[in-house]
Amino acid sequence: MSKAGDFENNDGVYKTLLESTQAIPWKIDWASMKFSYIGPQIEALLGWSVDSWVSVEDWAMRMHPEDRERVVNFCVSQSQCGVDHEADYRALTKDNGYVWIRDVVHVVRNPQGEVEALIGFMFDISERKKTEEKLLSLQKELEVLSFKDGLTNIANRRSFDAHFEAAWEQAQREQQPLSVLLFDVDFFKQYNDLYGHIQGDACLIDIAQTLSLALDGPRDLVARYGGEEFVVLLPGADADAAHKVAERCQRLIEKKAIVHALSPFSRRVTVSIGAGTVVPDEAALHTDFLHAVDQQLYAAKHHGRNRIEHVAVAVPNLVQAP
Ligand SMILES: Nc1nc2c(ncn2[C@@H]2O[C@H](COP(=O)(O)OP(=O)(O)OP(=O)(O)O)[C@@H](O)[C@H]2O)c(=O)[nH]1
């Protein structure tokens, strides 16, 4: 007799092989929906004894409630159609924990083509799931970080752009005002030259925190626009409201009293502010509006710094500044 023949005739060999694998083999009789076999490895993995696996009910009830309906419905429908399939779910352990399982199911038919039994393997995939979950949370963290400025921890330019575009479209749709404030730290090059770059960084962090404190609207956003420039987005704020926020920012920075020996303004760090308010009509472009606000910042610098200039022209429908 051939070696293969020897092997085929030896049920014990099969059993030993099946029961020494990591994967846990099982068999369910289709007519009775009862387990006719389950590998003893199941007890080491989940804690339930082999004898406790009687019917598909035991299988279904030892599944996480959030997974049960989806998995049971899927497996029943696939089996009824005679299609091999696999499903991932959390299996309940005897001590009330959960283990991620991948069940790989083969549908066995008799010579007439009728479903006779289901056989399968359960794989412990908890390690893989842990890695997947960790990757997912790292991905989320990365998404958050990619919208944050690394130095000041407030929103970055990319975040501002996304919020600004959304707010612009909403203002256009609802015909509501929208305001933007652009800030630039005065004489910052001299500050850096005098106190060094590290203290310059600390000054920018201080200003970012101060500006954050000045905002109270649920949709207001402060972001680092780049270098020593910051931007505040005020959806729904009319010119009056925006001007008040700009003044509050100025006041809070003044109160912070960051020493700048080369500043003509009480030897303290100050900011210049360009402000703009618009109720954008359908044709208005948000880039034109930002450009107009930037022009105001330029004007604030040009007119002596430490001041607010509020835009009143250059974009259709611009609301008159106070
Ligand atoms: N420490 C620090 N300095 C920065 C950072 N980003 C930009 N700067 C500095 O900011 C300074 C900006 O200089 P300028 O554009 O000449 O502006 P200014 O000196 O503030 O002059 P005015 O705006 O006209 O009042 C430069 O010296 C930059 O190196 C940063 O992240 N950290």
UniProtKB/TrEMBL annotation:
<feature type="domain" description="PAS">
    <location>
        <begin position="10"/>
        <end position="71"/>
    </location>
</feature>
<dbReference type="GO" id="GO:1902201">
    <property type="term" value="P:negative regulation of bacterial-type flagellum-dependent cell motility"/>
</dbReference>
<dbReference type="Pfam" id="PF08447">
    <property type="entry name" value="PAS_3"/>
</dbReference>
<dbReference type="InterPro" id="IPR000014">
    <property type="entry name" value="PAS"/>
</dbReference>
<dbReference type="Pfam" id="PF00990">
    <property type="entry name" value="GGDEF"/>
</dbReference>
<dbReference type="InterPro" id="IPR029787">
    <property type="entry name" value="Nucleotide_cyclase"/>
</dbReference>
<dbReference type="InterPro" id="IPR013655">
    <property type="entry name" value="PAS_fold_3"/>
</dbReference>
<feature type="domain" description="GGDEF">
    <location>
        <begin position="176"/>
        <end position="313"/>
    </location>
</feature>
<dbReference type="InterPro" id="IPR035965">
    <property type="entry name" value="PAS-like_dom_sf"/>
</dbReference>
<dbReference type="InterPro" id="IPR043128">
    <property type="entry name" value="Rev_trsase/Diguanyl_cyclase"/>
</dbReference>
<feature type="domain" description="PAC">
    <location>
        <begin position="85"/>
        <end position="137"/>
    </location>
</feature>
<dbReference type="InterPro" id="IPR001610">
    <property type="entry name" value="PAC"/>
</dbReference>
<dbReference type="GO" id="GO:0052621">
    <property type="term" value="F:diguanylate cyclase activity"/>
</dbReference>
<dbReference type="InterPro" id="IPR000160">
    <property type="entry name" value="GGDEF_dom"/>
</dbReference>
<dbReference type="InterPro" id="IPR050469">
    <property type="entry name" value="Diguanylate_Cyclase"/>
</dbReference>
<dbReference type="InterPro" id="IPR000700">
    <property type="entry name" value="PAS-assoc_C"/>
</dbReference>
<protein>
    <recommendedName>
        <fullName>diguanylate cyclase</fullName>
        <ecNumber>2.7.7.65</ecNumber>
    </recommendedName>
</protein>
<dbReference type="GO" id="GO:0005886">
    <property type="term" value="C:plasma membrane"/>
</dbReference>
<dbReference type="GO" id="GO:0043709">
    <property type="term" value="P:cell adhesion involved in single-species biofilm formation"/>
</dbReference>
